[in-house]
Amino acid sequence: MKKILVVDDNKDILVVVQLVLELRGYDVKTIWQGEQTIQAVKDFTPDVVLLDIYLGTTNGIEICNEIKSNPETKNTCIIMFSAHGKTEEVLNQCPANAFIAKPFDVNELAEVINREMDSVNDLK
Q1: Is the dihedral of CA 44, 49, 52, 57 positive or negative?
Q2: Which is nearest to 28 in space by CA: 102, 119, 110, 91?
Q3: Which of 18, 45, 51, 95 is 20 to 30 A from 75 in CA distance terms?
Q4: pTM for the full model?
Q5: What pLDDT, in 10s, does the model give residues 13-51?
Q6: Could you give the domains of the chain?
């Protein structure tokens, strides 16, 4: 079963995204404190990290850069998702695999996750 780690400081979004992804057959772990992300990636070893940019006291872009710069986690697929509408700006600041703007359609979310997961698996 494919594993997805969802990181967002909005607990309502976490509940909805977890439900939608679990109904699609994914093993989903959610965290709402960005500070826990790096350890969760190491412990849970997700196939995809769905990562918000604005996480209260931490910044998803910095977390993305940290994950991608670590040799142990650099191949982790990261999809940034945020109300921040400037995709190019976000992707220029961190090496995320993709970006989804909030609000998003759940079918679009699933399509992007599947596409990115497939492309990362092709590289392995």
Answers
A1: positive
A2: 110
A3: 18
A4: 0.91
A5: 999 999 999 999 999 999 999 899 999 999 999 999 999
A6: 3-123 (3.40.50.2300)
